[in-house]
Amino acid sequence: MLLSNQKRIKIYKIIQRIAQDQSISLEERIYVEKFAQHNSTISLWLKKANSFRRNGVKNDDGIDSLLQSLGVDGLDTENHFKPNEDDISDWFGGAPDWLRRS
């Protein structure tokens, strides 16, 4: 999905507000989610913003900072895969379309 420069800037500004825990409208959230489902870069931006919102910005040189910079869900223990409880196909079931296809 190709984005115009205007759309990309609009999405980025909304995501910045999410990262700073500022309020956004439901329409803005839906708008960003629509693009995140089909664009890996926007999905990564959104993951990072949600991590910043939940955990604050990690500025140390530790593993938490690395995970946050990569947009990996390692800081949120509820997102960890539990092999004795979770089914791997269900665990990946909520993945965006671009990831499920690969």
Number of strands: 0
Per DSSP, the total helix count is 6
**Can you write the helix and strand succession as a string?**
HHHHHH
Share of helix among residues? 55-70%
Largest sheet: none
Overall structural class, as computed from helix and strand content, comes to mainly alpha
What is the approximate shape?
globular
Mean pLDDT: 77
**Number of separate domains:** 1
Low-confidence stretches: none
Strand content: under 5%
Cα distance spanning the termini? 16 Å
As a whole number of angstroms, the C-alpha radius of gyration is: 15 Å
Briefly characterize the structure.
The protein is built from 6 helices and no strands.
Structure explained in plain terms:
The two termini are 16 Å apart. This protein has 6 helices and no strands. With 102 residues, the chain is mainly α. α1 (5-19) packs parallel to α3 (40-55) and α2 (26-36) packs across α3 (40-55). The protein is globular and about 45 Å long. The protein has one domain. The mean pLDDT is 77. It has helices spanning 5-19, 26-36, 40-55, 63-70, 88-91, 97-100.
